[in-house]
Amino acid sequence: MIPNITRGDRMAGLMSYLAGKGRHNDHSDQHLVAGDALLEQWGPQGQLDEEMGRRLAHHLDQPRQAFQVEVARGHVWHVSLSLRASEGIQTDEVWGAIARDFVTAMGFDNNPDAAPCRWAAVRHGLSANGNDHIHIAVNLVREDGTKASIHHDYSRAQQAARAIEQRFGLERLESRTTDMGMRGERPGEREVAARRGDGTPASIRLERTVRGVAASSLDEGEFVRRLNQAGVIVRPRFVSGRDDVVAGYSVALRPRPGEPIVWYGGGRLARDLTLPRLRMGWPDTAEGAQAAVDEWRATWGNPMRYRPVWPGREQQEPGADVWREYTDEIRRLRESLSAVDPSDRAAWAHAARDASGALAAWSQRVEPTPGPLAAASRTLARTAQQRSRDARPRAATSTAMHSVAGMARVLAVASTGANASMAEAMLFRELIRLVGTVHRMHDTMKQVDAAKQITASVGARLDAVRSRMPAMVGAEAVPSTEKPTTERAASTTVALDGVAAPNTGSPLPNPLTPHQPQVPTSPGRDDDRGR
């Protein structure tokens, strides 16, 4: 869940926006899902309109107006809580519970040491990106005239969101999971993509490409060459003072005329796509290291005009006979996983990452912009993340490395849509089964969040892809679950009938009483947390 905080001094303006049609007429079915105790007792039922927005603003703003309190940077604290589109749509009841938990965690309500703040949570349909979300408006002037503390509110909001993710079984935002996640989008990335006419931000497109290329490559030099072959610009980051030791890399999409090159480090895309992590999947030999350095050096002078130094197998198209070969190898890999200890996190992480890379390679080939295969790849990769201290290299002689690289390689040249062959369908069946094996591992280890992500996201998306493949007997899918559609919360209480118009008083039975500091009964300083 992603919290986004803003501050202001116009409660009426904010509520007018939340109750209105939005800047691009994109708001629909605007309604209240939760609020402070008094608002939930007398709160509105049904769709909010402009008049109801004014009444809500008046209710929320009363404490500040009654006590004439000024707050630096504004008394209106606003946060949007957003779920990824892959998480589906929650009910009003769930959003109401999330809002109450979040407000309590931030110390705005149910605080034994301070009077409550007035607040309201409004929901108005999906965002332009398909994300289910709510907005919470809080008056920082408490009902006794004291000011709510917003010290470190950004970090506190992140902590509150993480606790809510765990409590409600939501996808955990990777950037909050220490050393274990894939990176989120930077502010403005989606807007930049929209202006360019791209449906997906550059970081997501690059993550798919790098993951697929890494899975297809048997060594580091091939990785560099395949990135160039995929149309990506790449450059190395040498160790300071050296030109023969590469510590990292950056990638970028090829810019259009007049546009600057925007670089993304491997670690910016995902923590398991840093060069040290990728090297754990490749053999460590002197010859391979030198060949890789030669390729990196060739990119350094002018990345836009890089030419491979040692062209390799990436120049060769796999023949039709390799489809069955790699299908059989992936089947043997899947069967061998049944003997792996479920507690061997590193081994299972390699398996999940391999399957994710294969899906990314296939997506790169058949999806002009990241679609179901890319989304399934990202979700599966998310379950494969490890802390640095837990990660370990895969044996260089492992047949799994060759099998997965071969599978990703042939998927990278797969046909599309209705032209999909029976050979592809057979390989896809084994890939689905491999994903199912990873799912069962998470389920066995009681890793509920990871198992749920695979079930709800990967399974459903792979089912959609399988429906376009040639029919096969026994091509089972990962079980999928449907998330409920939006419903009106049964707990939404009576309408605001009889509430006075703005600035004419309120019938809510809560006389605003100013804060009365208590005189300490023992030596020491009185810590007024409400100030």
Give the helices and strands, then pairings:
Layout: E1 2-8, H1 11-19, E2 31-35, H2 37-42, H3 50-67, E3 76-82, H4 92-105, E4 119-123, E5 133-139, H5 153-168, H6 189-196, H7 202-216, H8 220-229, E6 232-238, E7 246-253, E8 264-265, H9 266-269, H10 275-279, H11 286-300, H12 321-337, H13 345-366, H14 372-383, H15 399-411, H16 422-444, H17 448-466
Antiparallel strand pairs: 1-3, 2-4, 3-5, 4-5, 6-7, 7-8
Helix pairs in contact: 1-3, 4-5, 7-8, 7-13, 7-15, 8-11, 12-15, 12-16, 13-14, 13-15, 13-16, 14-17, 16-17
What does this molecule look like?
- The chain has 531 residues and is of the alpha+beta class.
- It folds into 2 domains: 2-170, BirA Bifunctional Protein, domain 2; 189-466, no CATH class.
- It is 43% helix and 9% strand.
- It contains 17 helices and 8 strands.
- It has helices spanning 11-19, 37-42, 50-67, 92-105, 153-168, 189-196, 202-216, 220-229, 266-269, 275-279, 286-300, 321-337, 345-366, 372-383, 399-411, 422-444, 448-466, and strands spanning 2-8, 31-35, 76-82, 119-123, 133-139, 232-238, 246-253, 264-265.
- The chain has a 5-stranded antiparallel β-sheet, with helices on both faces. Strands 6-7-8 form a 3-stranded antiparallel β-sheet.
- A hairpin with a 7-residue loop joins strand 6 (232-238) and strand 7.
- Helix 4 crosses helix 5 (153-168), helix 7 packs across helix 13 and helix 8 runs parallel beside helix 11 (286-300).
- The longest helix has 23 residues, at 422-444.
- The chain is elongated, with a radius of gyration of 27 Å.
- Mean pLDDT is 74; it is low at 174-182, 416-420, 472-509 and 522-531.
